[in-house]
Amino acid sequence: MVHIGNSWDTRLEAEWTKPYYRRLRAMLVKEYQTHTVYPAPDELFNALKAVDYDAVRVVILGQDPYHGAGQAHGLSFSVRKGVSTPPSLQNIYKELAEDIGMKIPKSGNLEGWARQGVLLLNTVLSVRAGQPQSHRALGWEHLTDEIIRQINLREKPVVFFLWGRPARNKKQQINNPVHLILEAPHPSPLSAHGGFFGCRHFSKANAFLRENGMDPIRWEENA
Fold first, then answer.
1. Residue 223 has pLDDT above 90, yes or no
2. Residues 64 and 122 sit within 8 Å (Cβ to Cβ)
3. CA end-to-end span of the chain, whole Å?
4. pLDDT at 103 over 90
5. What is the C-alpha radius of gyration for the chain, rounded to an integer number of angstroms?
6. What integer is the mean pLDDT of 143-171?
7. Nearest Cα to 51, choosing from 2, 108, 113?
8. What is the 3-class SS of 150-172, one letter each residue?
9. CA–CA separation, 2 and 158 (whole Å)
């Protein structure tokens, strides 16, 4: 049984006993035993631990965790303080600088966003070292579908950033008209120039939050 420690426990309680999750758990046990896998097992659900269900204001949905040593810690696109900023996050910071004039931070730690209700979620929550998307077919997508469906039920508006094809495939789970969906290519150097740069998602999200009576996200508070 997974324990998140907030209201996600109630929202996701039924998932932990479903056949897909039992298979996923068994495969993960084997993967951690036979390969180097990121993030650490106790960090797999850090995104949910950091942002309670009722506190979600923005969802930034990526693909899968960073696959380099010392990078992934359970929050999409984030690394711990002291870890070099990965290329995808460098591009996110470049877009922030162009969009809202934010000074590019030295730290790649995004826990400051999570504290403001930004759910930093990947579509797949684990990965083998050096093998991006290696856990794509293990079953994580069923769980993250359910997480998105649960947020879609919210009456209070939420902004969804869907970055990259796996994230954009989640759009079918979002049909509540109160929410705002913002789509773009993944900020990876391989795709950022195909429409991520210039998307202005950060200012659009804050404008939407203001229009709905909520405080904007202070994007400069990254850690």
1. no
2. yes
3. 31
4. yes
5. 16
6. 96
7. 113
8. HHHCCCCCCEEEEECHHHHHHHH
9. 25
Query: What's the confidence (pLDDT) of residue 118?
Result: 98
Reported for 193-202, long-range contacts at CB under 8 A and 24+ positions apart, including other chains, are 196/91, 196/95, 196/163, 197/91, 197/94, 197/95, 197/98, 198/95, 198/98, 199/95, 200/95, 200/99, 201/95, 201/99, 201/161, 202/95, 202/96, 202/99, 202/100
- Euclidean distance between CA atoms 65 and 17, whole angstroms: 25
**Is the per-residue pLDDT at 222 higher than 90?**
no
Positions annotated as catalytic residues are: 64
pTM of the model: 0.96
Write out the two tokens for 119.
Answer: 């759910």
Sign of CA dihedral 179, 21, 51, 84: negative
Q: What is the DSSP string of the chain?
A: ----SSTHHHHHGGGGGSHHHHHHHHHHHHHHHHS-EES-GGGTTHHHHHS-GGG--EEEEESS---STTT-SSSTT---TTSPPPHHHHHHHHHHHHHH-PPPPS----HHHHTTTEEEEESS--EETTBTTTTTTSSHHHHHHHHHHHHHT-SS--EEEEESHHHHGGGGG---TTSEEEEE--SSTTTGGGTTTT--HHHHHHHHHHHTT-PPP-TT---
